[in-house]
Specification:
elongated, 29 helices, RNA-binding, 873 residues, Isoleucyl-tRNA Synthetase, domain 2, EC 6.1.1.9, Isoleucyl-tRNA Synthetase, Domain 1, alpha/beta
RNA sequence: GGGCGCAUAGCUCAGCGGUAGAGCACUGGUCUUACAAACCAGGGGUCGUAGGUUCGAACCCUACUGCGCCCA
């Protein structure tokens, strides 16, 4: 593709997205418009993509987020910034390992058959063949990302970054290894961090068990009683004080266990006595630690009971009823509540019920890191948009638990710690020599995927090396992400960003200056989209049917900061219609000879010309204001109304009269049409990149709108007088159209009319031709006889309907208007009769109400006169 | 159980102290020379309930009811 592929200037009457989108995108990439130059003098503007999962495909949530990011970045690029949207993916440890294991299982092979090295090799093969589908889909959406900089969290460079920060944290004592209760997925066979667990209210059972004459405990997981090593009561609970320090025999096991006093026990819950299973419950673990209790693990990594006895070998869910049955046989079941609804944790990847389990894992000590992350927002170095989301942020970072970062997987960054034959533990940095010799081995576990994602804002720019890209683009300007994952990786990026750049000046250490939060995409009934509910939509389907611009514009138009976005097919269709409207308006302009050139000075222009330019420049300013505040919905809405309701419906129609008249006026009209479209297409480009590119290049003959200058609002074109004139003209036209509609006249039917002006009305006298064209009123001819009249203010339009006048329709209309005016008068009068109002309301407000009263009085007089003049039936 | 938020036209949402708005849907009429993926005109809401503050409340305060989300 060497020549500029420009659509035929004679545009077809319907916009066909399928025909233009793919070639346009390919051209953009080929010409490098989305690439960024770290050596440029332009101010930087960098946003990193929230890295999609390598196993994933584009869903509406991505489409939404990408639309917003792309709009921000495209606008800044047009504004002359060195704009970089950094693309890439994360390696999604658990998800990817699961996918590849499933593939292998089809051939009857397990990862253990292959061995670690060969398995990881397989994963890379899988990625090369079928990973990263989403990248192609991003092209369909039109994402203006710098493809030459694409990164992957498992790349060499990013892996170096991971190892570097691990070593830094380890040396600073912020990474440690400890035996704790973790969330264990018995299917994925790995530990999960707290945020990888989803809680839901599930049906379960609550069983009360008599441990002794005086001790009754309740549990939802009866099988864990096999691992009990104590019973606890609140030390202040008078009922049980005497039991503290005594022992009882744990049923089914015959083990003697103590009764301990612990503040953590809530005396008001159940019997006020709790069983303590330190190896299988986080709270019990803490109790156990406080009282030096042993922790008995009674289950293996598959969730199968290992405790000796009749239950050994049973799955945890088989063991549960079996244990209850055995206790019942001994007469120890006091009560059973079934179903008992309670919160149950599930693996966010595979939905398996998570098993709390005592296990030796690696942890990040988040205290100081989270403190710094909170402070960065508190002292204003990082702004959260909208600010209403701040409490959510502080609520999280100010009360964060240590982060479990080890995963019992093979796919991921292997923990860079080596163990020696004599109990040595060595953390190895990226440039350090790995310990060799008899008995040395590396830790088997890999790191949580978020550990590498947390580095994304700077590892993608070359960190830990001091690269020019890092120098230019760190900190990033904005991070755009959903409020639902504010804690997931935003908190982690803040912690690691601030830590890794701790030596930098405080305002430069933050990973980004602004966090812009968006909501979640919902269906047209406001319901959360989910595969299981069956209301999930594939954005590709809508892009195929209506075009990418239609999808993007719909999403942008729904994007209120921090709020969820409902979307339905009807709305995408409406956006498609809007794109087609732009297409046809441009088509009309081109057919009419519109061109982009120097705009004549205002005094040479007609009121409609001056009006549309005034409106354009007002809207341009509004759009800028909204963009600066991440108000995508407002910006899009303003443009939608301007383009459709003002430019297309009124200016273009008025222009038709101007184009048909005086040559000089027609020529100036062509320039105004060209100028408005030129600006409108540029300012719409960030949210509807394809249709605007196709139209703008055709209109201007220039290479691309992608790098065209962002339109600056020209205040000097503001023209309140022209706006008032056109407003009056529009009112007159609408009144006549309403009359015509009431009278059942066909829109195209031409009717003779005479204009009678009671006062000087420039809106009409200067624009009579336009007025008659828009209302289909012909000049009066011989034999004109006025059979009906429309009165609007000082203007009377006498119409010759040649007989058939629908007097009743007219009476209904006038009566309704009269009733409205009387209501308005009553309201105004009531206020003006109120002395308190006169005394306390601001002057301007009182004046406004006075004017309203005067207008209403005049209108009432006019309407009453007209009603009286109607022929009686 | 703790925290945050939301209740405005049939649906989805703006508005957040001075005459109730948009899109879609709806009704009637039109192929009017850019567009029927369009145009013209129209109907539709005592702004969840009850109190309070104010000259004035959809908007501020309190309670209640009903939903949603996050955390435990």
């Amino acid at each position: 593709m060497t020549e500029t592929t420009r659509p035929d200037p004679a545009l077809p009457p319907v916009f066909d997205p399928a025909q233009v989108e793919v070639p346009l995108y390919e051209r953009w990439v080929e010409r490098g418009y989305f690439e960024a130059d770290e050596k440029s003098d332009k101010p930087p503007y960098c946003i990193v993509i929230p890295p999609p999962n390598v196993t994933g495909s584009l869903h509406l949530g991505h489409a939404f987020e990408h639309t917003l990011i792309d709009a921000l970045v495209r606008r800044r690029r047009m504004q002359g910034y060195e704009a970089l949207w950094m693309p890439g993916m994360d390696h999604a440890g658990i998800a990817t390992q699961n996918v590849v294991e499933r593939e292998l299982a089809k051939q009857g092979v397990s990862r253990h058959d292959l061995g670690r090295e060969a398995f990881v090799e397989k994963v890379w093969e899988w990625k090369a063949e079928s990973g990263g589908k989403i990248l192609a889909q991003m092209r369909r959406l039109g994402d203006g990302v710098a493809w030459s900089r694409e990164r992957f969290t498992m790349d060499h460079g990013l892996s170096r970054a991971v190892q570097t920060i691990f070593k830094m944290l380890y040396d600073d004592g912020l990474i440690y290894r400890a035996e704790r209760i973790i969330n264990w997925c018995v299917r994925c066979h790995t530990a999960l961090s707290d945020i990888e667990v989803e809680h839901s209210d599930d049906d379960g059972e609550l069983v009360s068990i008599r441990y002794s004459d005086e001790v009754v405990v309740a549990t939802t997981r009866a099988e864990t009683m096999l691992g009990d090593t104590a019973v606890a009561v609140n030390p202040g609970d008078e009922r049980y004080k005497h039991l503290i320090g005594t022992e009882l025999v744990l049923p089914l096991t015959g083990r003697r266990i103590p009764i301990v006093g612990d503040e953590h026990v809530d005396p008001s819950f159940g019997t006020g006595m709790v069983k303590v299973t330190p190896a299988h419950d986080p709270n019990d673990f803490e109790i156990g630690r406080r009282h030096g209790l042993p922790a008995l693990t009674i289950m293996d990594e598959q969730g199968v009971i290992t405790a000796h006895g009749p239950f050994q070998g049973l799955d945890r869910f088989e063991a549960r009823p079996a244990v209850v049955a055995a206790l019942r046989a001994e007469g120890r079941i006091v009560s059973e509540k079934r179903p008992y609804v309670h919160a149950v944790g599930h693996c966010s990847r595979c939905k398996t019920v998570v098993e709390p389990r005592l296990s030796l894992q690696w942890w990040v000590k988040v205290g100081p890191l989270a403190q710094a992350a909170g402070d960065a927002v508190r002292d204003g170095r990082v702004a959260i948009h909208p600010t209403s989301m701040e409490p959510r942020w502080f609520g999280w970072v100010d009360d964060m638990h240590d982060w479990c970062i080890s995963r019992q997987l093979w796919w991921g960054h292997r923990i860079p710690v080596w163990y020696g034959p004599d109990g040595e533990v060595v953390c190895v940095g990226p440039d350090d020599a790995v310990p060799t010799g008899e008995g040395w081995h590396q830790d088997e576990d890999v790191l949580d995927t978020w550990f590498s994602s947390a580095l994304w804002p700077f590892s993608t720019l070359g960190w830990p090396d001091e690269t020019p890209a890092l120098e230019k683009f760190y900190p990033n300007q904005v991070l755009v992400t959903g409020y639902d994952i504010l804690f997931f990786w935003v908190a982690r990026m803040m912690m690691f960003g601030l830590y890794a750049h701790g030596a930098a000046e405080p305002s430069k250490a933050v990973p980004f200056h602004t966090i812009a939060l968006h909501g979640m995409v919902r269906d047209e009934r406001g319901k959360k989209m989910s595969k299981s509910f069956g209301n999930a939509v594939d954005p590709l389907d809508w892009m195929d049917a209506y075009g990418s611009d239609a999808l993007r514009f719909t999403l942008a138009r729904g994007a209120n900061p921090g709020a969820d976005v409902p979307i339905g097919e009807d709305w995408v269709q409406a956006s498609r219609n809007f794109c087609n409207k732009l297409w046809n308006a441009t088509r009309f302009a081109l057919i009419s000879g519109a061109r982009v050139g120097e705009l004549p000075p205002s005094p040479e222009l007609t009121a409609p010309d001056r009006w549309i330019l005034s409106r354009l420049n007002t809207v341009l300013a509004e759009v800028d204001e909204h963009y600066e505040d991440f108000q995508f919905a407002k910006a899009s809405e303003a443009l939608f109304h301007f383009a459709r309701d003002e430019f297309c419906d009124w200016y273009v129609e008025l222009a038709k009269t101007q184009l048909a008249g005086d040559d000089a006026v027609a020529e100036r009209t062509r320039l105004v049409l060209g100028n408005v479209l030129d600006n409108l297409l540029r300012v719409l480009h960030p949210v509807a990149p394809f249709v605007t590119e196709a139209l703008w290049t055709t209109l201007t003959g220039q290479e691309t709108v992608v790098t065209a200058a962002w339109p600056a609002a020209d205040r000097s074109r503001r023209d309140p007088a022209a706006e008032a004139t056109v407003a009056e003209l529009r009112r007159l036209v609408t009144e006549v159209r309403r009359f015509r509609s009431d009278q059942g006249l066909k829109p195209g039917q031409r009717v003779p009319a005479r204009l009678v002006l009671a006062a000087d009305t420039p809106a009409l006298t200067d624009h009579e031709a336009a007025f008659r064209s828009l209302t289909r009123l012909e000049p009066e001819a011989d034999g004109f006889s006025a059979t009906a009249r429309v009165v609007v203010g000082s203007v009377t339009v006498e119409v010759d309907l040649s007989g058939a006048v629908d007097v009743e329709a007219e009476r209904r209309r006038l009566t309704k208007d009269l009733s409205n005016e009387r209501k308005a008068l009553e309201q105004a009068a009531r206020k003006l009769d109120n002395e308190q109002f006169l005394a306390k309301a601001p002057e301007a407000e009182v004046d406004k109400v006075r004017t309203r009263r005067t207008t209403a009085e005049a209108e009432i007089a006019r309407l009453e006169a007209q009603l009286a003049a109607l022929p009686q039936t």
